[in-house]
Design a protein that fits this description.
alpha/beta; single chain; globular; 5 helices
């Protein structure tokens, strides 16, 4: 993990900005070429408005970039929306509301999945200042040999800022997310 690049691009076209950013760090992403199964993990925390969510065009840009490196590798866009859960909605509703289902129609070998109903989990210990506990992480996370987190750097209602570091919490059992 030493000497990894960071790229920042400014412009008016979301998809082109993301593709340019990825091109600038492409040498650090070389493992995509040999990946057998890739998970793209958006951050779909808001039911409305959409500015807190990973925009569907962001996912499209990443898919198109990956297709240049690995044309046939299965790509899965997977999420378990905590906001949907706490409002008694399935993640599929968030996929629908923010036009994510177009990805399966537009791109070959791309699928959407949700982790809402997963029953098999990996037990992950957590050591903290308030005590030791554990989280249950969906066992399906192990199916992916390459994982891409696409969260938006942002502030948070429980912290000053999370930036995007907690995005992979969408792989945690919904009842454990708040923990």
């Amino acid at each position: 993990m030493k000497n990894k690049k960071l790229a920042v691009v400014k412009g008016d076209n979301r998809k082109e900005n993301i593709k340019e950013c990825l091109t600038l760090i492409q040498e650090d992403l070389d493992k995509i070429r040999t990946a057998k199964n890739i998970l793209i993990k958006p951050n779909l925390v808001a039911l409305e408005p959409d500015f807190a969510n990973t925009h569907v065009e962001t996912i499209e840009a990443v898919i198109e970039f990956i297709r240049e490196m690995a044309p046939d590798t299965p790509l899965t866009v997977g999420e378990s929306s905590a906001s949907a859960y706490y409002n008694r909605y399935p993640t599929t509703k968030v996929f629908e509301d923010f036009d994510y289902y177009r990805l399966e129609k537009k791109y070959e070998n791309v699928s959407l999945i949700h982790f809402d109903d997963d029953k098999e989990y990996i037990d992950s210990p957590i050591h903290s200042v308030v005590g030791d506990t554990h989280l249950r992480i969906t066992k399906r996370a192990d199916e992916f040999d390459y994982k891409i987190s696409l969260a938006i750097p942002k502030t948070h209602n429980f912290a000053v800022a999370t930036f995007g570091i907690k995005n992979m919490a969408g792989l945690v059992m919904r009842q454990d997310m708040a923990m």
